[in-house]
Design a protein that fits this description.
By secondary structure, this protein is mainly β. The protein contains ten helices and 26 strands. Among the domains are: 337 residues, monomeric porin ompg (Porin, Beta Barrel); 123 residues, OmpA-like domain (60s Ribosomal Protein L30, Chain: A, 2-Layer Sandwich). Helix 7 runs antiparallel to helix 8.
Amino acid sequence: MKKTLLSLLFITIIFSAKAQSYLGYTHDNYAGIQSVLFNPASIADSRFKTDINIFSVSGSVANDLYGVNIFDTYKKGYDFDTQSKMTPKGANNGLANFDIMGPSFMFNIAPKHTIAVFTRARSVSNVRNINGNLVDQVKDGLDKASDFNFNAGNANGASNTWAELGLSYAAVLYQKDQHFLKGGLTAKYLQGGVNGYVKGNNVNVKYNENTVNPEKGTLVSSGEISVGTSQDFEANEDYKFDSGANGFGFDFGLVYEWRPDYDQYDLSRAKPADNNFRDLNKYKVRFGLSVTDVGSINYKKARQDTYNVNGTITQEMIDDADNFYDFLNEHYTKTSSRNGMKTNLPTALHADVDWNMYKKFYLNLNGDINMVSANKINGYGIADRVTLTPRYESRWFSFYVPMTYMEYSGMQVGSGLRVGAFFIGSGSILTNLVSKESKAADFHLGMKIPVYEKKFKDTDGDGVIDKEDACRKVAGPAENNGCPWPDADKDGVFDKDDACPNVAGPVENKGCPWKDSDGDTLLDNVDACPAIAGPIENKGCPWPDTDGDGVLDKDDACPTVAGLAENKGCPVLDADKDGVPDNVDECPLIAGPAENKGCPKVTKATLEKLKVEAKSIFFVTGKATLSDAKKGETSGRLDAIKEILKNYPNAKFAINGHTDNVGNPKANQKLSEERAKVVMDALIAKGVNPDNLSSQGFGASKPVATNKTASGRAQNRRTEIVYLGNL
């Protein structure tokens, strides 16, 4: 028996899949438009100016019932039923996915804002809770099976094909120091295609073999089966596009990046060639979280029939059936029927952590969780999985090795690469190369036109990027379009700033040579008075005469008070108020008449007083020694004489010594000279100016009285102070 009822129910179990597309590729920072399918936030602050997808496709199958050598299945004569290894359980499962992305693009609309528009055709199929032992029994037909009695339970299968037109928006939400957060949202218009499903409810199947005539064996079943399709295939087996089958869906996601080296990307320090560091991946660790495929499609022309399958059928009944619906309608009771249905999208939660291990080497840990109940009628979703993917990525090349633990199909290892505008890969290729019991296979490939953000070229390093630099090989300022300013006279002052562009001159004089405006031989740049001639020693300025007395300040001892040149510019004073200026006053501190050069005149009274004082100077008899007996009186007389003499600083006085005639005339002469000198020295010792004094002895030659009497001789023994005139 080659055709069985159960074959119609369970044929899709060999196609199982991971409804996850582009496994290992979407987390690449250069995945571009494909990354929006996994997390719409990923396209914000991307490495692209724009990314245009021309065509890409991803497909995958996997299951937990059949294990095969994938490459043997392509050999001629391969018998799937006999050469595959089955692992039947009470509840085997399978999923299937096929994903085609048509013309799509993404581009930055502002530094922190990005949009993407994509077109996509998808097909996802699920088979869940199938009793694998029952499948194993009937794989060769009922007539080849022994007696069996299986509880098929609540087997559930669903398949949907649809198209999407998606619009994604992503933006940077927060940026401060090492913290960087971005978010994204995708809105999708959904156009339904083909949708079908089968749902069992407490189905039990028992086969009774007829050993005499195997074709007379019977199949006894019980329970309930619901069957739904997007159109009435019983009335019309040709698929007709239903424009009214549509719906809406959306995805949303967040991405956080930890950027410990954020100060290296400070835009305030960026050079024009840095292009605001848009070409660099700046994170050390990236965290992503997203929910995709929230929404549904409303098939308004869909049909759902529910059958009570309690009854017994024979092989002959099965052989006579033209189609599945005919068989159900002829042999079982339809308990309900309705038109129109909604089918959900394969809603899933995604999370990933991406670690930039070193330069262009990354390690990604990604997990997917199905959000659709396995028992939901007409429900289909993804398989839970965890993938660890090391990769190397650069602008034009990436290589990645996804290692995945997948619900149902187990562990698998694949690889993929991206070269320029092309990418190709598989999440299971390495496992399938070595395993003889593979339960999964997948692939993805595509072609696109990537336009990357990049650092601008600045050949001469002048801060003006080449595309704006009129002199790309010679450094120059931005205000001159990157060209150096000309300097015709080679004086180091650019012509734009040079007041004398054809004559060399210093920078501080705007490129002109210095002049000597006042002709004082001192150039204006060092001349403190460039418009007035002056001596070099006064920095080219004329010497000032502040008080206007004709004596320049540099020579004027009194620069702010007018005076006489002969008095060094100071006014003449008269300290003793005698009317004789100090400059001609020989006695500036003692008042005196002008005719005596400002000094007081020596009067007869003064001379008389000097005579009296001088008489009282006593000597030891016969010696030129002041008398000790009269010491106090003699000293007082000398002090009095000193006080008189100091009042006549310009007068010359003589100290004359005299003796009587007693004794040897020569001795008397010598004695008189010595006594006169003793008096002069004593006055000098007391402070009298030596220039005002002289001494002389006359012996007994000038008596003032008779030497014949004692009183006369006493008068002749005397010391006199005589006024000689002015100095």
